[in-house]
Amino acid sequence: MRFRPIAATLLASLALLSGSGMAQEASIRKNLADRIPQLKNIDEVSKTAIPGVFEIRANGTDIYYSDAQGNYLIQGTLIDTKARKNLTEERVSKLTAIKFEALPLKDAFTIVRGNGSRKLAVFEDPNCGYCKRFERDLQKVDNVTIYMFLYPILGPESAEKSKAIWCAPDRAKAWQDWMVREQPVPAVAAGSACDSTALTRNVDLGHKHKIEGTPTLIFSNSTRIPGAIDAKQVESALSDAKS
């Protein structure tokens, strides 16, 4: 019986702390919405390891930091110097991760080499010089199925070339003719009924998951690697994905 007052006091304290946290979140949401229209719809407010500093998540994957009243907003990187970790980068990586099995493979075309046992998805722009270098090196990788997502983000010409490749009778051949052999992309036939809306969906998907450069590779274990890595690095990542 004598423990009841202590328990009641503890519960009251927890309730106050909870109420305080809710009040802080409400203040942050209201003040930021009033002062910064882009933050009108905040997805999540959560505490960080720094007392009095809160993480603000907006637009799905945009990360900011604020004080408890929303009077100050920090746009930048939070680094744990003791653990030597980029906390912002880790958080964004988790938020933008793409599960390989969730990729809309109907919006890609496939290139199969050897027995095709290993799986790799690639987002590329036909006007990307780094992609062309990557494609030439990728010819050395065997026993792989490549799911090629055309990702035209470098301007109107990229969109035109991507549409022409997507609408070609043999997409894989048209792609490799252009990227590896420097042969012209075949023009889309006049009056063609080709449905190229997959390209728009690819761009939307990439923006959602912050694919900001090409090539971007996604392996079967959902590991994501940006940039034109060489064949040896691709082989290593493919091996890791199977283990």
Outline:
This protein is an alpha+beta fold and about 240 residues long. Helix content is about 40%, strand content about 20%.
Structure keywords:
single chain; 243 residues; alpha+beta; Nuclear Transport Factor 2, Chain: A; Glutaredoxin; 2 domains; five-stranded mixed β-sheet; four-stranded antiparallel β-sheet; 7 helices; 11 strands; 20% strand; elongated
3D architecture notes:
- The structure is a single chain.
- The protein has helices spanning about 5-35, 85-95, 130-140, 155-165, 170-180, 195-210, 230-240, and strands spanning about 40-45, 55-60, 60-65, 75, 80, 85, 110-115, 120-125, 145-150, 215-220, 225.
- The protein is elongated.
- The termini are far apart.
- The chain has 7 helices and 11 strands.
- It is α+β, with helices and mostly antiparallel strands and about 240 residues long.
- It has 2 domains: about 5-95, Disulphide bond isomerase, DsbC/G, N-terminal (Nuclear Transport Factor 2, Chain: A, Roll), CATH 3.10.450; about 100-240, Glutaredoxin (3-Layer(aba) Sandwich).
- About 40% of the residues lie in helices and about 20% in strands.
- The chain has a 5-stranded mixed β-sheet with strand order 7-9-8-10-11.
Q: If you consult CATH, what is the topology of the largest domain?
A: Glutaredoxin
**Helix and strand composition category:** alpha+beta
Give the number of domains: 2
Mean pLDDT: 90
